Structures are given as structure tokens and as C-alpha cells.
Amino acid sequence: MEINTAPPGRLAGRWVPWLVIGLWMVLAAVMVPLSGKLSSVTTDKAVDTLPANAESTKVAALEDSLPGGEDNTFVFVYSRAGGMTDADRATVERHYNTLVKRYPPKTTTAGEDDDGPPTRLSTDGRAMMFTLDVSTAYGEPETIVGPVRDAAKDRPAGLELDVTGPAAIDGDMDAVFDGIDLQVFLTTVIVVTVLLILTYRSPVLWFIPLVVVGAAALTAMATVYLLVKGFGIVVNDQNSALLTILVFGVGTDYALLLIARYRETLHHHENVRVAMVHALRGAAPAIVASAATVIAGLLCLLAADLNSTSGLGPIGAAGILCALVAMLTLFPAVLVVLGRRIFWPAIPRFSTAVQERPGLWGRLGAAINRRRWMAMLGSFGILGVLAVGLAGNTGALREQDQFLSAPESVTGFAVLRQHFPELGGQPMTIYTRPAYQEQVLEAVKRTPGVAEAEPGQTTGGWTDISVFPTDAPDTPAEYETIKRVRTAVHAVNGAEAIVGGPSAENLDTEVTTRRDEKLVIPLVLAVVLIILGLLLRAIVAPLVLMATVIVSFAAAFGGSVFVFETILGFKGIDYSVPLLAFLFLVALGVDYNIFLTSRAREETVRLGTRDGMLKALSATGGVITSAGVVLAATFAVLTSLPLVMLIEVGFLVAFGVLLDALLVRSVLVPALTLLIGRRIWWPSRLSRPTAEPPNVPRPLAEDEELALQR
């Protein structure tokens, strides 16, 4: 790829940088107000995030459409170690009556006992419970779980209460995401600021990329808001947080690469505009190819059936595109306007004789060249040892184990299961036609693993049935019960029955995610491989790079599983982590190989394969390592959040990025290139370098240089 200007005097004149800055100021005036509206369109409702065609999604949609069907269900579990007293029982009944008066149901449930509150005493006499359905007219779970708990605070000493149930878990989960966008944004800004200051050791230079990346992030948020309003894309809190991480991570990477090339050209050109044009001609093709790889990989998520996963595709792609445009327009314009002094105190001086020193990365390249086999085998050995961790616990993480510190809704389920083992699982909800209610109810009661089945209300041409499994929530045994219940109700001729509920939603989400992995992962590999082939105009090099990235992903995943299981004590891997981590690590991990190999290809036509790779490693080693550290640090921000799923994604991607930047790109890829030799570029003509390499950006002509200087 070549960036050319014709005539360059018009595109890089004195007024062009100011025009670019002015256009971005106008854009900011329009987009910044819209960026603040993104939180107003984020949703974590089940019907919006579940698999598009899953049975539990149909139940959730039906619940939302029927009067009373969208109620939030809370379970109150009272317990006393020495056994429930008469005062305790009176307190439970008083709490129930108070709550029902405060949150009156819209309709009366069929079969409800009118002689007293529907409280239940455990067989061991040490616990009581009741279920409370609160209409969404009073608010969403996160807004009413607090008042509901406060209403039952007044109780005798020694009487413990845990408010749990599906609505309580949703409320506690929403509390984790409350304010997460601002927290992630501020934490990311702080982390990137510190790293930029350490990288440049300049009192001013760090501030410029930070401001430009911030502008890109706000523009991306506004763009995503417009996409949601225009196309109905699903944005949940998780995807909103990932958007911020992606824009800051890749945007800062692009800034580091452009600054490094700009600093290099400033030594060879006295005029800053001339130097910037040369810097863009050298760095922009790799940056554009990198962004195209990530965008293409993200858009592969559109093939996923899970709404929250498919929604991340256009959201992330919009963020990467905004970062790319900002870094190739606004950032160069600001640097040109500020001139060389922005690098103070280490201002790059123009000199006709610039002496190149080998430096750390040059010495590393020389060492790899001397011990190519050792470097390759040692790298594969380290990656192989890390991959052994895949033999650890890679089972799915239960919803109750998602919290870093178990909230009341999670501990309440443990108490419920202890005293009411027959109600140990989360209730399933079955909708069927009224004429088939009795037949469906009988079929469910005969199903193994079902503790109880109770008929509910009839409205809108549907009847609901609540089913309580005997097994603990989100366990393989409970999932098998859900499958058996579905088989049983579907066998009732004409019943038109559908089975949903919290655990059924989790089951459908897990099954859909596994199916999406089988579709999206090969698609991502194919798309990235095609982009690498077009960029490098070769077949062998893309295959080698993809192989190293896949091995690196296996090592990062295995090492992370070991940390999660042995050090952090997590009880599994969230079902969404493997696909997200694979996408980010393949797309982002290939970035560093693109930056290295594109420079190696540029140098190869002049120096040959061996010297070209060594020159590329020496020239790009420092900046790519800095970029990898910055990107890893931005994803590591997710580990500061109190949700296991986000910690797993943040740690795994950060660890994988560091592996790619410090080992795969720095040692393994150079070693493989040196071992394979010029055949790495087959069938490109680079395998036999010519005197006039066609793919090196041509130098500016004398009249173009003068035009730029004017």
C-alpha cells in the first residue's frame, strides 16, 4: 500500500493541518453531546441479549408482552440456627403482608391460598420462605432490590434473612455495571497517561495522543449511539466497556507507531511537513492494514446467533474505525502545527549524516540470527508449557459464581438449597395454551429432576406454569432436567408449549455460544489470513504468522486457566470468554506481526531477507513493545472490576498481547523468518530481490519537497 499526494503542496500546505483541526472541532461539537447518550440505549434485558431464536428468548419476549408476565421474582429466605420461633413466623407473615401492600400484584395467581400468606416452613424447622412478584411498573431489578430488602430489615435478633431469586441476582449484577462506563473510561485514561509519560519522558508529548484518542473515543461512542438508533444494534454494559478499551488501546498503539516513524524522518528532513508526509507514507499502510484486520475480525461476529455477541461486531468496528481516522488525520495535523518542540527535551535534530546505532533490539536480532534454531525451539517450548494449562478447569462458570465477592442473592441460594433442597434450582417458566394446561402440567410432574410444578395465571391466550428443579442452579444436572422438561412438553400434541426461565436462558446462551464458536472462529481465521495475504502479497508468510498467533492463543489461554484455577480460585470460565479472547488475540496479536513484517518487507527489497528482518526488528522493536505494553495495560483495566467474566477477559487478553509483543513477535517470528529465508515471501518477487523494488514508497521529487516546504 502506498500513500501518495498529488500535488503534495495542496494537501500538506501550511493551511491543511489547521483545516483538519477545524473540521475535527466541528465534528466534536456535533458528536460529543451524542456520546453522553450512549448509556441511555444500553440494555441488559434478557430478550435483547439472548440468542435470537432460542426457546428461552421466546419466553422472555412473551413475558414482556403479557400483563403481569414481566414481574420481577424475589425469594425471601429466613433462617435461625436454633429453629424458627413463633415471633419469627409472625415476622415473616408481617413482612409478606407489608410487601404485598407496597407492591400489589396486578392479578391474582390461580391456586393462591386466600387464608393466609403463601409462606413455607422447611422440614428441619429452621427456615421459612416466600416468593414475591413485583411488577416492572415499580422499576427494574436494580432500582427495587434495595427498597425490597429495606422493607424487611425490622426482625428479631438472630433471625437471618437473604433476599434472592432471579430479580435479586439481576439487581446485584446490574449494581456491578452501575457506573462502569465512567469507571473504565477514567481508569483507562490514567493508565494510558502514566504509560505515555514513561515512554516519552516528555512533559508535553504524552498529552497529544491522549487528547486525540479521547476525541476518537467520544466520536466512537456517538457513532455507536447513532447505529443503535438507526439499526437497532444491541449494546449492553459489557460491550460498552469493551468499546472504550478497544479505542484507547489501538488508538494509542497507532499513535506510538506514527510518532516513532515521525521522529525517525525528522532526522532526515528539516521541514516538519515534509517529515510528516514521509512518516505517513511509511507507517500508514501498516496501520491501515492493522485496523482492517481488527475491523474484519469484529464484523465476523455478525454471523453469531447470540445477540450480545453479534452486537459487539459493529460496535467494535465503529470504535476501531474512529481511532484509525483520528490517528491518521487529527493526530498528524496537531503534531505538524506544534513542530519539533513537542518532543522537548529530546528534540530530534535534522542532520545530513544520521548515525544509526544497533541498540537493544539490534543486539537481540544479532543473537537470534546466531542461534536461530535455539530461538525457535525455545519459544515453542515456552508456549507449549503454558498451553498445558488447558488441561485445567475450563468448564462453564455458573451465574452465581460470576461475582468476585458473593452478594446476598448468591448466598441466599445456598441457604435456600440447605433448608429447602426440593427447591434448590431456579424456577423454570412454561407457557402453553389454556386448553392444554393440565396435560402439560402432568407431563412436567412426571419428568425426573422436577421437584414441583404449579399452575399460574391465564392471560392473553397463554397459561404459565412454574417448575422447580431439584438440582442446584446452572449445574449440568439442572440443565439435563431442563432438556427433559422441554422434551416432555413438546411431546404433548398441540400444546404449543415453550420453556424458559433464568437457568434455561443460561443453558441456551451456553449452547448458542458453543455453536457460534464453531462458525465464527474459522471465519475470523480465514478473513485475517486473506488480509495478511493481500498486505504481504505472499502465501508462506501469512500462514506462518497465523500459525504463531494460534499457538500464542493456546499458550495464553492455558496460562490464564492455571492462574484462574490455582491462584484466583475461579470456578470455571465464562462461556463468552473463549470466543472474545480468541477474536481479540488473533486480530490484535496479528497487528504486531503486521507492523514487523510490513517493515521487514520494505527493508527486504533493499537489504535482502536476513538483513531486512534484522533491520525491521531493530527499527520497530522498541515502539512495538511499547504498543504491546499499552494495549495489555488497557485490557488489564478490566481486572479492576468486581465481575469474574470481565476479569477473565481482561487478564487473558492482556497476557496474550504481552506474549505476542514480547516473545512471538520479538523472537519466534524473526527466528522463523531467518530459518525459512527468502522462501518466506513466496510467490512474491521479493524471493528474488530486484534492483528497483516496486513496493517501496517512492521518495518525493525535488519540486514536491519544495512545494511542501512552502
Automatic annotation (TrEMBL):
GO cellular component: plasma membrane
Principal cellular location given in the protein's record: membrane
Localization of this protein: Cell membrane
Membrane topology: Multi-pass membrane protein
SSD domain: residues covered: 218-337, 566-674
InterPro entries (alphabetical): MMPL_dom, Mycobact_MmpL, SSD
PANTHER family the UniProt entry points to: MEMBRANE PROTEIN MJ1562-RELATED (PTHR33406), MEMBRANE PROTEIN YDGH-RELATED (PTHR33406:SF6)
Protein name: RND superfamily putative drug exporter
Natural source organism: Paractinoplanes brasiliensis
